[in-house]
Design brief:
This protein has 228 residues and is of the alpha/beta class. The protein is built from 9 helices and 7 strands; from the N terminus they run αααβαβαββαβααβαβ. A 7-stranded mixed beta sheet has the order 3-2-1-4-5-7-6. The chain starts with 6 loop residues before the first helix and ends with a strand.
Length: 228
């Protein structure tokens, strides 16, 4: 599916640091068969990018956000003609307001760091597993702790640095224990340091060459497909 998307569609789906984060789409599709009619819960979707992606795949999507209104997402979905496949709801991922085994897919991108404690993040993962059907998939792309340089640059330049909790490799590994089958990958090396999307695009091209041969601990994006 990613190969059939236009550059504009990919930009609207991924939104920032596109060259690195778009790798999530091909990774997810490589390890889980996304089929029309599947029911998808998309978490942290203020701009609605992943909801757009799954709606274009023919899925039925619940597009959620914790506090912010979803007006921006609604407008984009209307523009792409997929609104009939999407419903909208405010949602706290620590207490998902759906019954057990309600969804074929639960998905998020750069979301769980907004939960500022280990306990809150663990509770969210438990809730995600609870609402997944048997053999359903938790698909995610999330910011990893990465290197000391990444941590320094985030403290220096990221406005929400004090409110965001980056997840360690050890914590990602602990999530795996809740699922029957898991696939994971780390990617991204220097594009994070770009101060504009143009700079991140250039550095993303550099990452495509050097990220695969860099130490895993230095990479800042964690991709996952966890099967219940």
């Amino acid at each position: 599916m990613p190969n059939s998307l236009s550059k504009k569609e990919i930009k609207d789906i991924i939104q920032w640091d596109v060259k690195n984060w778009k790798n999530a789409l091909s990774f997810w599709e490589a390890h889980f068969s996304i089929k029309p009619g599947m029911r998808v819960l998309a978490l942290g979707e203020r701009q609605g990018g992943l909801s757009l992606y799954f709606a274009k795949m023919g899925c039925e999507v619940v597009c959620t956000e914790y506090k912010e209104p979803l007006d921006e997402a609604r407008e984009m979905h209307k523009k792409y003609g997929v609104s009939e496949r999407i419903t909208y709801q405010q949602m706290d991922m620590r207490k998902i307001d759906f019954a057990d085994q309600s969804f074929d897919i639960v998905v998020f991108k750069s979301v769980i760091g907004a939960l500022s404690s280990v306990n809150d993040q663990s509770q969210a993962i438990s809730e995600i597993r609870r609402v997944l059907k048997k053999d359903g998939a938790f698909l995610f792309a999330e910011n990893a702790v990465a290197s000391r340089l990444h941590r320094y640059m985030r403290k220096k330049f990221v406005n929400w640095k004090d409110a965001w909790r980056y997840v360690s490799d050890e914590e990602f590994e602990s999530w795996k224990k809740l699922f029957s089958k898991t696939y994971s990958k780390k990617t991204g090396l220097v594009a994070l340091f770009g101060r504009s999307e143009k700079q991140r695009s250039f550095l993303g091209a550099v990452d495509s060459l050097f990220s695969p041969i860099s130490p895993k601990a230095w990479r800042y994006i964690y991709l996952g497909v966890f099967i219940r």
